[in-house]
Amino acid sequence: MAYSYTGKTALITGASSGIGEEFADQLAKRGMNLILVARSQDKLKAIAERVTDKSGITCKVLCADLTDPDAARGLADRVKSAGMQVDLLINNAGFGTHGPFAKQSPDQERQEVLLNALAPLEAIHAFLPGMRERGHGAVINVASSAGFQPTPFMSVYGATKAFLLHLSEGLWAEFKDDGIQFTCLCPGPVETNFFDASGSPTLKKAVSNTPMMSSQRCVREALKGFEAGKPVVVPGMSIKLMTQSSRFMPRSWLASASAKVLGPRKRK
Ligand SMILES: NC(=O)c1ccc[n+]([C@@H]2O[C@H](COP(=O)([O-])OP(=O)(O)OC[C@H]3O[C@@H](n4cnc5c(N)ncnc54)[C@H](OP(=O)(O)O)[C@@H]3O)[C@@H](O)[C@H]2O)c1
Which pairing describes strands 88-91 and 232-233: parallel, antiparallel, or unpaired? Predict the structure, then answer.
């Protein structure tokens, strides 16, 4: 698929930092107009100013907490009132909790499920009808390599990303002949605010043996795969191999091995 970006509009959730901010930069360079969504208005405004100055595109900021009920419908209404349409939806906002399950806050985990799984689902429902009417559109769902296997001590996070991965692949097959492209981006560790946002001081340490990718490379590879019409993009060879391991190894073995990586270090 030769995707033509110029003059089209992308709505990016979680655009105030990390991978979302990088999507904004790289898509603006390709001539795409942008709608940036997150909770931090000041950060979004600064990014909007930067990308419009550099690229001369149109950029709208929409502040929203995507865990609010009706957030997606609210966004669709605000996009319509602004006289805009969404050609490319990027469901990127997300966070991960880490630590022993018994010590996690059920409220925090509820927010995690709402943001990582339900918000993308509802955003797709809100923007897909317009894409179908126009006969074209695209969705990039940002899941994670964690969606391919059990992730003890991050079980809820992994489960939300498995949900998004399965949802995305299913919709890819359902809509591929209708001019609507679904791509699921599944990165391994990327250098962003994600690890601080998890509130777990030990998470970054736990993945320290896995190479960290820059958000620039992650998004470059995502867009390359998206342009090639791929349903799933896993940036980086080592992470690609890791995500394939569930095809050859028993899942119980994988779960135990992950527990050793993500769980508390035992004193010898
Ligand atoms: N970094 C990694 O290692 C990694 C690996 C695989 C997958 N991912 C996925 O990549 C996506 C982006 O994460 P990142 O690494 O770029 O982390 P990040 O820098 O922490 O970005 C998270 C974004 O989500 C937004 N967000 C958080 N809660 C929100 C809410 N309730 N409503 C609306 N927006 C909200 C944040 O903005 P506000 O705080 O301003 O709302 C921020 O823009 C996530 O889905 C994450 O699971 C990350």
Answer: unpaired
Which of 5, 8, 161, 230 is catalytic? The answer is 161
Residue with tokens 């899941």: 143
Domain boundaries, the chain: 9-96+125-262
98 CA → ligand 1 middle, Å: 15
Superfamily of domain 9-96+125-262: NAD(P)-binding Rossmann-like Domain (3.40.50.720)
Token code pair at residue 10: 């992308």
What are the E-state strand segments in the chain? 9-13, 33-38, 59-63, 88-91, 137-142, 180-185, 232-233
46: CB partners within 8 A, 6+ apart: none
Is the pLDDT assigned to residue 268 strictly greater than 60? no
What is the pLDDT confidence band of residue 267, given thresholds at 50, 70 and 90? low
Atom of ligand 1 nearest to the CA of 191: 1
* Mean model confidence pLDDT for the chain: 95
Q: Ligand 1, residue 43: give the atom nearest the CA.
A: 40
- CA atoms within 13 Å, Cβ hemisphere of 249: 17
What is the CB < 6 Å shell around ligand 1? 13-20, 38-40, 43, 65-67, 92-96, 115, 142, 144, 187, 189-190, 192-194, 197
pLDDT digits (tens, 9 = 90+) for 100-126: 999 999 999 999 999 999 999 999 999
Nearest residue (by CA) to ligand 1, atom 23, is 14
Ligand 1: atom nearest CA of 66 is: 32
